[in-house]
Amino acid sequence: MADLDSLRTRFARTLEAARGPAGGPDPAPYAGNLLSRWQEPQRRYHTVEHLTAVLDRVDELERYAHDPDVVRLAAWFHDAVYLPDRSENEERSARLAERALAEAGVPEAKTAEAARLVRLTVTHDPADDDPDGQVLCDADLAILASSPSAYAAYTTAVREEYHFIPNDAFREGRTAILRQLLDLPRLFRTPYAAAKWEATARHNLTAELEMLSLPSHDAS
Q1: Cα separations (Å) of 191 from 115, 138, 158?
Q2: What are the pLDDT digits (tens) for 13-29?
Q3: pTM above the 0.90 mark?
């Protein structure tokens, strides 16, 4: 289980660092709103556990970032709006970031950058000269390089989020996503992630793709 008190403290620390000496409103209501979003009942994978994992990976990769605190803010917002049956979650999450961070006292340029990073999670394909984008995308995709049991739990949770989609349609959509990821020249852009996670992630993705290609005996 995620440590909610620890997450509130992490958010406050990040917000205060991003907005600088000018300060701003109490971070607690913003953290509370975000955490309530991350605990919505429709979520099975995109939960506070995923948020914690992404924040932990950002910490692991922060030496590659230009502005680690803005990357952390983007991580907090990147799936803050998440409805599995909607296609514009990233855009709505970015707009939430624009409104909330501006109100919370984050400077305009940093607010805009956090929102840009949230939108980048649509493709997970940051430019070569985008270190902050590379750190956020690598952190978000790190689950792909997890152990076989953790990867199986991840795929099960994703399927549960899309429980309303018939099996054949889900397999088709999931297959397209896996192929899109495998077609990327590199899944991970930071040197550390490329060295530590790339091979395992490609193995996991390929194994899942092969499993999805097996004939289904489920009539749904």
Answers
A1: 25, 10, 28
A2: 999 999 989 899 999 99
A3: yes
